[in-house]
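Q: What structure does this chain adopt?
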Amino acid sequence: MNQRHTYRRRFWMFPFFALAAILLLGNIIRWLWNAILPDLLNVNPISYWQSVGLLALCRLLFGNFGGRRGGPGRWGRQPRFSRGNSNDDKRGFGPPWRNKWMEMTDAERSKFRQEMRRRCGKPPENDL
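A:
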């Protein structure tokens, strides 16, 4: 069967599933809020439409509910693993600061730690 035809046939079902998800999530949020928070924090219970509004607000503030759908990723995340074939070469593994850290000598790492402690307002670490 043609895959494009299958998607076209299922596309009309998307609005119904989206509406069902909103109804279900709104009720779940309302139930959780009204079951836990009034007794715990002495807040007022909320209505269904307030819970849907809270769901929309969380969606706007915190982003999508699903996983990543391609693209560069959130906050410029780097790929987790390099595409190299060598297991010994750790270059390209993890975020860029990890590569820099791995290439530092012990003296440079100690100096970096001392500077970070100074910037954060912590007392300097005693070098042994």
